[in-house]
Amino acid sequence: MSTTKQTTDDLRTNVLEFALGENRYCVDIGYIAEIVDTADLTAVPNTADHVEGVMDLRGETTKIVNLRKIFGEDDGETLGSRIIVFKRKQDSKERIGWLADEVNQVREIQLQEVDTSVEGDGIAGVIRRDDDFVLWINPTDVRV
């Protein structure tokens, strides 16, 4: 009987890369239910500033969150054209979508590529891409 030892070098995952303004972000695709175009949003009074409103997504009310405001990148004018809708947590009835300017692609990454020394609310790490960086977001750590 042989045993295979799996090292960090072998661990891979798929992430969805997306843009908010000039910055690129990614999130593990295991959290994502679907990606939809931004439709008419209904504003909800007395909600947090980063909540842009709600929308009807196949008969379900979905709260739409502006990550630009959460991450302090809000230019006050632009709403993203795409919405990344997340799978519902087992203990939650709330369905959430994040506004994104652009959804780029799904990429496979090796976990050893992720620099976890960078700390920030919701930021799980940083991945170097050519001459740029992609910030890896852990959606369970983002306060929405």
UniProtKB/TrEMBL annotation:
GO terms for cellular component: cytosol. GO terms for biological process: chemotaxis; signal transduction. SUPFAM superfamilies: CheW-like. PROSITE patterns: CHEW. Gene3D superfamilies: CheA-289, Domain 4, SH3 Domains. SMART domains: CheW. Coiled coil: none annotated. InterPro entries: CheW, CheW-like_dom_sf, CheW-lke_dom. PANTHER family: CHEMOTAXIS PROTEIN CHEW (PTHR22617:SF23), CHEMOTAXIS SENSOR HISTIDINE KINASE-RELATED (PTHR22617). This is CheW protein. It comes from Natronobacterium gregoryi (strain ATCC 43098 / DSM 3393 / CCM 3738 / CIP 104747 / IAM 13177 / JCM 8860 / NBRC 102187 / NCIMB 2189 / SP2).
